[in-house]
Amino acid sequence: TSKLSNLKQSMIPIEPATRSFHLKIKENAHHMTWSIQCCQFPITPAYAFTDYRSQGQTLPCVIIDITTPLSGTLNLFNLYIAQSRSHSRLQICLLHDFDNNVFQKTHCHELLMEDDWLEE
Predict the structure, then answer these.
(1) Which of 14, 91, 117, 118 has CA atoms 20 to 30 A from the CA of 107?
(2) Distance from first CA to last CA of the chain, Å, rounded?
(3) Distance of CA 75 to CAs 37, 39, 103, Å?
């Protein structure tokens, strides 16, 4: 993979995409060809929020990215919350493949201590 020199590791560059195509038009007996060039940023509008923000909500469709974030860790609580936001597993889509070992980990000791404290 290539990396741009002054770009932070968590930043993804978006470069404009240029496409060209020809449009053939027949008007009466005349044939015309137009050359069209389009330049735009390949961005799709979307709405996203964290698993923390989604707690307590039931969503009609869920797309989950369960890769370990560059700036932190992913624990079993994060996974549970992300995967339990819809009515059924048929309404959940995983963004891409993930490391199966993330489900084999144990809970963080600090979270277990807090959970025990809340149970008292």
Answers:
(1) 91
(2) 51
(3) 47, 41, 8
